[in-house]
Amino acid sequence: LRVSGLNKHIIDLSFPEINNFEVGSWFNSEYFGLKIPKLTDVFEIIDDSTLLNIEIKHEATSFINRNLEKKLLELIKKYNMEYRVILSCFNPMVVNRIRKLEPQISTVYLITQNINSFLIYLLGKINAKFINIDFNYLNQKNIKKLKVSGLKVMTYTLNSSDKYEKALKLGVNGIVTDYPDKLNKFLADAK
Length: 191
Description:
The chain is an alpha/beta fold and about 190 residues long.
């Protein structure tokens, strides 16, 4: 709930408690009063051309309790979103479990570290197809290692034209941003 200015974890709160927080003004005063929607609300309002990245917070998962992942997958199936979502997590075991439960749903392992041979081995063991690497670790050498291993490379969280340009020159397959309108304009202007 960092956008509300509170140091709380969603997993520790009920939805009515979560829905009391104002989360829009961090972005722009025009959005003051905005509340956190339920995922079902988001599923109902996005159009068919929208690909939705859902990050599963590793604090919400465990090696014992897998209910969150199962409930999320049930919801995705109920709304026929299997080909319109990407599920991402910093926990490789969560990514692996989701791939085993629903292999048709795209999964992404989030990385905030330099690329090394052990990490590439681990990515192979969990049958990763995509990785989303912190922009600060992006360089030609890392991207080459990952692509040679058969991975598609995304990067996060880029919010400026100079970073979009650098990432694209390095050959990423995707960019995560807080400002999709800015990225779309950049891509349109670059054509």
